[in-house]
Amino acid sequence: MMQRLSEEQFESWRKDARVLEKDRYGEKVLLLADGTMLKLFRRKSWFSKTLFFPPAERFADNAVALRRLNVPCPQVISTYKLLNPYRSVVHYYPLAGATLRGMLQTEQSLDQLVLFTQLAEFITSLHEKGVYFRSLHLGNIVLTPDGQLGLIDISDLRCVGRPLSKGMRNRNYRHLLRYREDWVLVDESVRALFPLFS
């Protein structure tokens, strides 16, 4: 159940926070002084499904479902609603590690073949576990300090309770591969690990 987040509490968190992501509507992700994070979701219209099932609740439910499936992901502390302006808010411990996108951009000695072989196996395991992640991209996949791959930004995800169909797997791969700015940094021989690459 979402709690109401007072403007006073939000401002006290926000005062010493670092803004990690924002758009023209305002702040979207805040890193708080204690190392936890707030993710804020706006309601895009008054007559949308988010009115009945806010994204912050989806995020929290998906975190529980992923942990049951042994998929590393953020650990949710609580969910809130902020009224002015309206936002659904999730407060969580971030998943430790580096995103694959960040690693590609900064680590010159990265062994891409090893990492992307692990990624291909990870995605196959997600599909076998019934995880359909429409926002699957290299910025949402983290390599943890203990060498596992995990998922972040998990509100746009479904756990369907059975292995994904071939069509759903292909759609998932298309989402992953459409971010050309990521894949131009990947060696051509490594791209062959992934179906549908063109």
TrEMBL record:
Phylogenetic lineage: Bacteria, Pseudomonadati, Pseudomonadota, Gammaproteobacteria, Pseudomonadales
Record-linked Gene3D superfamilies: Transferase(Phosphotransferase) domain 1 (1.10.510.10)
UniProt keywords, alphabetically: Kinase, Transferase
Keyword Kinase: yes
Gene Ontology MF: a single term: kinase activity
SUPFAM superfamilies the UniProt entry points to: Protein kinase-like (PK-like)
Protein's recorded name: Lipopolysaccharide kinase (Kdo/WaaP) family protein
